[in-house]
Specification:
heterodimer; B: 500 residues; 1% strand
């Protein structure tokens, strides 16, 4: 199983560093027309690192092959069968991604405190253990509010109030 | 001199000074333990209070905050796998496995003892070696810095765990992410959005990579024991455990002092350097990263060891080595004191008072650390299902408070997902961490050196300091290649033996 993981790690690294080297660096690392003195250009270091990463990725793939061949067929499980076999885990992982994305995009709309209250509540639900329901409900509300008070009083951090909330408040004021 | 020392002692031994140090250390420990709240933040927030205090009391308050926060970072690093400060990132590697094994209190005690010893040695060196160390620090230019960083990066080989190749892949990822944003000549790299132009913050990346994967793992795999609190075992640090780590503590302290005296290096690099040296030389080197007390001792003695030493270039030369000493320079100026050689001529009494006060602060650090560590250990009793989601929310608030930037929170969450994927693929996170911290210093100094020398590589071999680090780097690379070759040969022999 470990050899199989090495193969996937090598595959992911090879693809990642190849994309960096051949796609992202040419587009997103601009070389200025004038460089002071004899300083190396800004793309030199990322190119060196991405090349080393690519070589290491290929090396990980190459080193994983003989071990995979040596292992019995039963031991080496393909990516497809692994995903199908762990469908529930994949679904939960996608769930985590959706929750994080919803927090990032929802926070400016509903405000920092309500967004963190919701995030904490949803994460408690996603742990799948409900023996301490009352603790979970209480903490979901009290913990973010306490942190909000701590950070606003101590560091005077201006947390976003949320566009929706500020809209309704200003509407109330107008009324 | 003795008369001046006596007067200085009298000037320091006052209730307001002791209260300022005690409050500073205490507040620093608590602030350092909160993820996202850093020593820099603590010192900056306290600066306005110093307007109303006498000069020595103000500086002692700021120094106490700095030291307290540096130690405080280790508390969250050990108990919740969340480095409170970047300098405590190395402590996570052994601290958290110990906490999971029910030895959180033991780990905290080791962190406290080694922090205090490192701090004390650093203070002594500030007292006796300020001038020679400052002169040495001035000889370290970009080429020497580059060689030092190159040697420090060789630690990747020793913290890669099972596979060196995967360790290097992890380090390359860290080096690449560290290039995001504006470089030293004002060019933007990988600025996929407007927010990315200022780069990725160190704290959101580190906390995301270490703290969040545990939560995602719990949500995705829902292990049977995820409702259990961590076990609380014997929390006392025994004499034999302390004796086993004493070499690493002293070595770490000396590394902390030497690197702390060089402007721009800071406690994080010192901690990694010391950890790497301890791992290379310890007889328990193989156990590092799995919960080895010596690993905590090495990193904590070095990061606190560099605290007092960062004051050396400030006091002796008037050069602030990092942001915190920059803020302290401001505090000196507010009170009409100008750090540098003239300070020793015109205000020798204040300098001695400051030195003595800083020496006292090590004792306060021990008392405050002992009291708070006991209280923080209770975190271990909270069940994981309640603790891990709350840690995420704490991190979200802490990270947002650094720059009031939603982008930092996004980086935190994305790095959590990246860390989880790395965990699934068995790619070690530690090499990423060291590469991300040291990468920018390595690259900037390489480019600066080449710009100074007009592209001549000979600039890297012009001083004995550069040669020394170059020789160490080559030696370590040869030893690593030899070790890996031997490992590969042994594996091949074992495979062929099992086939027969």
């Amino acid at each position: 199983m470990t050899q199989n993981r090495d193969f996937y790690a090598g595959l992911v690294a090879t693809v990642f560093f190849a994309v960096i080297l051949f796609v992202l660096i040419p587009i997103y690392v601009k070389v200025p027309s004038f460089i002071p003195g004899f300083a190396p250009p800004p793309d030199m270091w990322p190119r060196v690192v991405a090349t080393v990463g690519l070589v290491m990725g290929v090396l990980a793939l190459v080193l994983a092959f003989p071990k995979m061949r040596a292992a019995s067929r039963e031991q080496v499980e393909g990516l497809g069968s692994r995903i199908l076999g762990n469908k529930i885990h994949v679904m939960r992982f996608i769930g985590v991604l959706i929750v994080f994305a919803a927090f990032v995009y929802g926070m400016p709309l509903i405000g920092f405190v309500p967004a963190t209250v919701l995030l904490l509540g949803v994460l408690f639900i996603m742990t799948g253990k409900f023996e301490r329901k009352f603790w979970m409900i209480g903490l979901s509300i009290i913990f973010p509010v306490l942190l909000y008070l701590l950070f606003t009083k101590v560091t005077h951090t201006p947390f976003p109030e949320g566009k929706l909330l500020s809209l309704s408040l200003s509407d109330l004021v107008t009324l | 001199m003795w008369n001046e020392l006596l007067y200085a002692f009298e000037a320091v031994a006052t209730l307001p000074n002791f209260l300022a140090m005690f409050a500073g250390i205490w507040a620093g420990v608590i602030i350092g333990a909160i993820p996202g709240m850093t020593g820099t933040m603590a010192v900056t927030l306290a600066l306005p209070f110093t307007f109303y205090l006498p000069p020595v009391t103000s500086i002692l308050l700021l120094v106490a905050l700095y030291k307290g926060s540096t130690y405080g970072g280790s508390i969250s690093a050990i108990l919740i796998k969340t480095p409170g400060t970047a300098s405590a990132a190395c402590t996570v590697l052994d601290g958290y496995p110990l906490a999971r094994a029910g030895k959180g209190g033991k780990a905290l005690n080791m962190a406290l003892v080694s922090s205090c010893i490192g701090d004390f040695i650093s203070n002594i060196s500030l007292f006796f070696l300020a001038i020679p160390l400052a002169t040495f620090a001035l000889r370290v230019g970009p080429p020497e810095f580059f060689m030092l960083m190159a040697f420090s990066l060789t630690i990747v080989a020793s913290i890669s765990g099972r596979s060196l190749v995967l360790g290097i892949i992890s380090a390359c990822l860290g080096l690449l992410l560290a290039t995001v944003g504006e470089d030293i000549y004002g060019s933007y790299r990988f600025a996929l959005s407007e927010d990315m132009k200022s780069g990725l913050g160190m704290v959101p990346v580190l906390i995301g990579l270490f703290a969040l994967p545990e939560l995602i793992k719990m949500v995705v795999f829902r292990p049977e024991d995820n409702n259990d609190a961590m076990k609380l075992g014997d929390n006392r640090l025994t004499l034999s455990e302390f004796r086993g780590s004493i070499k690493s503590i002293f070595r770490g302290s000396v590394i902390g002092v030497a690197l702390g005296a060089i402007p721009g290096i800071g406690p994080s690099t010192a901690a990694f350097f010391s950890y790497s040296e301890a791992r290379r030389t310890s007889k328990n080197g193989d156990k590092f990263g799995e919960g080895e007390l010596e690993g905590i001792a090495a990193s904590e003695s070095a990061n606190n060891g560099s605290c007092g030493a960062t004051m050396i270039p400030l006091l002796a030369l008037g050069v602030p080595g990092d942001v915190i000493t920059g803020v302290m320079l401001g505090a000196f100026m507010i009170h009409g004191l100008t750090p540098g050689p003239l300070l020793f001529q015109n205000n020798l009494g204040d300098v001695y008072a400051l030195f003595i006060g800083i020496l006292f602060s090590s004792v306060f650090l021990f008392i405050a650390g002992k009291a708070t560590a006991g209280a923080f250990t209770k975190i271990s009793r909270i069940p994981q299902t309640l603790l891990l989601p709350c840690i995420l929310i704490l991190c979200v608030y802490g990270i947002y408070s650094i720059g009031a930037s939603p982008f930092d929170v996004t980086v935190l969450l994305v790095m959590g997902v990246v860390g989880f994927i790395m965990m699934l693929l068995n790619i070690p996170a530690a090499p990423f961490l060291i590469a991300f911290i040291l990468g920018p210093m390595f690259e900037d100094n390489m480019r600066r050196s080449l710009a100074i020398s007009r592209g001549d590589l000979g600039v890297f071999f012009q001083s004995w300091i550069s040669w020394g680090f170059f020789a160490l780097t080559v030696l370590f690379v040869i030893l690593t290649i030899r070790r890996e070759w031997k490992k590969w040969r042994d594996n091949r022999n074992a495979d062929s033996a099992s086939a027969n």
